[in-house]
Amino acid sequence: MPTPSRQKRAPQADEEAFDSEVFDKENEMNGGAGSGSAGKRKQSPADDGDGDDDDHVQQQANADDNDDSPHSPPPPKHSKKKSKKSASFAAATSDSPMKDRHINPTGKPAEAGIIHEVYVENFMCHRKLSVKLCRNVNFIHGQNGSGKSAILAAIQVCLGAGARRTHRARNLKDLVRKEAGADCAGAKLRVTLLNKGADGYMPEIYGDYITVERIISLRSGGFNGYKLLDATGKERSRSKKDLDAMLDQLNIQVENPVAVLDQEEAKKFLTGKAEDKYEFFTKATELERLDRVYASITDNILEQKATRERALENIQGSIENTRQLKKEWEQFQELDKLEVEVQELRANYGWSVHGEFREQLQEEMKKAQKYAKALEKRRLEFTTAEQSVNVTDDQEMEVNKQLKELTDEANAAAADKLQLENDLKADQAPIKLKERERGLLSRELAQEKKKHASAIKRLDDARRHILESQGNVAEEERVRTRKIAQTENDLARAREQVEPLKEQVNEHLRKYQDIEPAMQQAKETMDGTERQLVGVQHKMNALQQESGGGMAALAVFGGKCKALYEAVQKAERAKKFQGPVAGPVGMYVKIVSGKEKYAKIAESAIGPGALDRFIVTNQSDLQLMNRLRREVGCGPRDCPLYRISPKSTKQKYNVPEPPPGVETITSVLNVENAMAFNFLVDHASIDTSALADSKESSESALLVRENNGKCSIKGGKIRKVFFLPNADYWEARMGNMMMVGNDRPMKQTIGVDRSAAMESIKHEIVALQKELARNKEEDKGVRDAAYKHKKDWNVANEQYKKLISRIKEMEVTLDRLKDEAETSEEAPTIDTTEYERDIQEADAAVQDLKRKEASVLQEIQSLQPTVEERKKLLDEVTSRNVKIMNEMEKLEERMEDIVKGQTRRMEQLDKLRAKVDQMQEAVKQQEQVVAEVKGKVNEALAGAQKMQFSYYRDARMFQLKEANGGELPPGEEVELEPTEEDLEGIEIVEVPNDSKYYKTKLQSKLKKIEQEKKRRNMSESDPAVARDKYFRAKKDLDSKMELINMIESNVAALTDDLKERRKRWRQFRGHIAEQTNLGFDEFLNKKGSAGEVVFDHENKTLDLVVQKSNMDEHTQTKDVKALSGGERSFATLSLLLAIGECLETPFRVMDEFDVFLDPVARKIAMDNLVKVAKTMDHRQFIFITPQDVSNLKTDPKLRIFKMKPPARNNTVGGPQQQTLDFGN
């Protein structure tokens, strides 16, 4: 047997639970009738519906003690086979799906479910007997007839088995001791079980011990059943269900032949066929019971399928009858629906008439307002003219006085101007003198320059004459002299250029330095303007995004809005529309600045499908818009259209102002386009929808509760009140306050109205752009000037440097030539000193004149500021004189009007008085017209409200009847005639068409109703009878279909479930078979043999292959009958123990397990049983044998009970059996 380290585990929780699901399904189909073996321990599913029967098939920890057995022959030949099987066994155990069972785990003494004591009274051959068993190994032996098997029968009967299961009697009364006599009331059995540890059954109630007491009564009326006693002996229950629950919790299986093996079962197993052994195997491992359950479920599935088919065939007539009755009932409903539509058309006709009168009233009121404004204007003109007539002499004197003052002021200004002009002339006189002096100096300078040039020319001519006159004195001297003359001439001219060029360089440098600060200032000014412009543009973009402006914002109203808008713009440019077109509506709608918190509820109150609409005014444009919608791919709900009256295109409706402290959609939104505004008033009632911060504040501001309990809205203008935070709203209808919740998510596609701020910023941007352009021009001009001065300075500086370099080179050349002349041979020369002196004198005169000219220029510049100041003062005085002259001219014109226009003003006053009287008469007549039209509007409103009430009444009755199967619900009342409050609560309905349209539709609908009534030929003339027939047939059909659907659903669920469980059952069977085969071989190894269990699951047979010697394969035999009695018994015992390894019951009982064993085989079997049982100290073993067990030694883990030999001639009251305790 395997060691504890190779522990076999129990099925997982899913293996434990899956049978319960099968039983639940089966109980549903069978109405609670379960199936199971007649002799099994657990109650059937019909008892408690609990099918958790896989708990009865467990795996126990085993130990392979073959090497430690002194009686086991050495198995050198078979050791390889054994090792291979052991490895396979270990692998199969570790991969087993049956794990984690917790009943008395290995390595821990048994705590729950083992038998502590067995007590019988008047049972079989015992008058009274008490046996206290050991927790681990117990041997009960004695002669035949000593009552050993009675202890086993007591355990079986007391723990739920029937009398037949004991193989001792047909009924329980036959088990009562016969020697007790006629006065015996019956038998009493008690089995006390240990109930400790985590797996105990309800330890908080029963304690550490549970006693099961079974009473077998022989008297009628006496108690015959079970009792459950706690550790103190107190009775806790008499329910068989509680007993089964306790046995299930502790995994006690008294009807399992492997858990409790009596004599008859042992004999049957020894002599049985292969089919009997397989049946024994499936019964012991619970496989047979599960297979029967699955077969029962399969039969149930087939039966339900047949039931469903029969039901479907039987209800065809009901289906056809219901269909015909429904058709008749729907015909009546169609007529009612047509009547409701007629009422709706009547109401729409009334509202269209009211709308037409209201439009006429608006037009007449506009005329009245226009006349009133014109009258006010005439009156103002008349008042002004009347005031102008009453001009007095004081006004004339005032005008004369002003003229005199202006004349005096003009004279003084003229004197000032004359004085300034004289002063200016005096200041300009020295400048003019200096200018003349400068002119003379300039002319003298020019003459001196000519003299200087003439002296140079004369010197050149003299030198050339000297050279020509000398002839051929010395060629070198001539050349040198010519070079010296040329060099001196060039040097003189170069020196003349030095000073002007130097002044030019300094002048360009000064100009560049003077303009550099202006260039930097221009650059800083331009950069500042650019930064300011960028900031303003960013602000403009932010406002555009906030207000939802731009073409990109059209996408928020729908994916096709932008494309349709562009198509509309293109068509408008092509002049394809006959009237104005607007849209989408949301494009013109903005939130008023400061009221952004109402944006979402305002949009929710407007409702979906309004902001993305396009508006037209005639049928032709409507058709064109539909064509454009198709071209851009609009769906049925994309960019819907609305046709508005042509009269509503230019001016917005004159909607009433909201009550003080109340916001409406019209006060929160700013709608630019008149068509869009009028559409929202007509379609979304934005003028009658109030907005509030909360429900409480809205009720406080608008809700009026009257003494009679009726509610209304203050002011009579508001119809619905929406409030934050979810756009829920309430309204007062027919005197009741109705609250309506909003389940649509709120969103905001309307932008904030920033038009004023954007317009201001646009002007600012234009001004900044102009300023930036001006700054750029100034910066460019300054930079160009700076670049020119810098370039000029660079050019002049370069010329100056080149000139200085050239002078130095010429001076060096001249010195060299002179040195060569002094060292050369003296040649005949002519004195040119006079010419050279002339040149020097001319050069000195030129320089002196230049200094004088510069001095004169400086004096002119010093006098210039005074002259400029005089000119500025003179300009101011001149400007003041012009202003005074203009004012005098105006006063003179006024004086002329005063003097000469009195008659003309009187005539004009008379004309204006006549116009005022005429306009007053026109206003009076228009007010009469308005009053007449108001009367028509009120009359049309009253008629429309009555028609609307009739429509509401008929529609409500139709809905109630339709929802309640054709009749009004019990207790539901509908008012037939409206009250004044009902009519006042009806809001004005805006209809899209005129009265002619609805009148035509109404006449057509009435004609259709008459035709339908004549056309239809119905079997029932009473709609109530048709309705009752239809609903009775429908109810009957629905109940049948519900049953059929339930059967179909159950069949599908059971089929899938059964398929999965069959699969798991086969896996479970294969695992148990493999475990049994491995265990059988290992137990035979204890005796030096080998074996194999051959399963044929198809034919349901179990054969044993036994090899007498594990070292000799020739001793192998497949015929167990060929074995000796002892060998067959040992093989059978090994198989039983192997099967028992797959169980996890807390105790196992084996009666006469050692029959036919020879002494050697018996000793080996006994030693191995004891050794294995002791290693499995978490299990209790009870072995019953008639053989002698004196060779066994008792210890704390082993107890031996010897039964007293029977007294063959006992009388009543004689010696009885007793318990013998050996050594513990």
From TrEMBL:
Q: Where does the record place Low complexity bias?
A: 86-96
Per its UniProt record, what Gene3D superfamilies does this chain match?
P-loop containing nucleotide triphosphate hydrolases
Q: Which superkingdom heads the taxonomic lineage of this protein's source?
A: Eukaryota
Any one GO MF term held by the record is: ATP binding
Its localization reads:
Chromosome; Nucleus
Family annotation (InterPro entries): P-loop_NTPase (IPR027417), RecF/RecN/SMC_N (IPR003395)
- Predominant localisation class: nucleus
Q: Where is this region: Disordered?
A: 1-108
Which residue stretches, if any, does this entry annotate as coiled coil? 358-546, 758-936
Q: Name one GO cellular component term.
A: nucleus
Supply one GO BP term.
Answer: DNA repair
One Pfam short name: SMC_N
Q: What keywords are assigned to this protein? A: ATP-binding, Chromosome, Coiled coil, DNA damage, DNA recombination, DNA repair, Nucleotide-binding, Nucleus
The residues covered by the RecF/RecN/SMC N-terminal domain are: 115-1201
The leader peptide range reads none
Entry's family note: Belongs to the SMC family. SMC6 subfamily.
Under what name is this protein listed?
A: RecF/RecN/SMC N-terminal domain-containing protein
What lineage is this protein's organism placed in?
Eukaryota, Sar, Stramenopiles, Ochrophyta, Bacillariophyta
